[in-house]
Amino acid sequence: MANLESEVKRLMASGMSEAEARETALYDMEIEAGNATEFDLTAEQQKVAKKYTATGTKKKTEYQFSKRERKPNETKRHIMGDVKTLFQGLELNGICKGVCLSNPERTLDFEMDGKQYTLTLTEHRPKK
Fold it and tell me: Hey, where are the domains in the chain?
């Protein structure tokens, strides 16, 4: 009961009368103990409250990530084809080896003097 008395004193310090403080402290202790109180909702009221407080479930959005199809750039393919032919000629002369177009519009890989190289073709945007 010492706990009740200290709670009553604390509540009285906030401006409550002794009767109000005692009633509030007893009610708080009942709630903390998990006991039923006069203000609890009936089963029917709980169903109604659940219905009106339900947020529902939002349908989960499923994204379809797909890589954008690019139009083939025939000019770049033609340039890289010519560069590949040039490097294949160097390969026949023993200057380089392992000539390979890893991306037909962009990169050519080869080996020269024991080191790996990649030649990259870049088409610049027109200036504004």
Answer: 1-34, 74-120
Task: Give Cα separations from 105 to 33, 69, 71, 102, 123 (angstroms).
Answer: 75, 14, 11, 9, 10
Q: What is the pTM of this model?
A: 0.46
**Please, are residues 108 and 99 in contact by the beta-carbon 8 Å criterion?**
yes
DSSP string of 41-93? PPHHHHHHHHHHH----PPPP-----PPPPPP-HHHHHHHHHHHHHHHHHHHT
d(CA 22, CA 19): 5
Which amino acid is residue 11, in one-letter code? L
The tens digit of pLDDT for each residue in 36-48 reads: 877 788 889 889 8
Count Cβ atoms below 10 Å from residue 112 Cβ, excluding itself. 14
Distance CA 119, CA 105 (A): 11
Q: Are 72 and 99 in contact (CB under 8 A)?
A: no
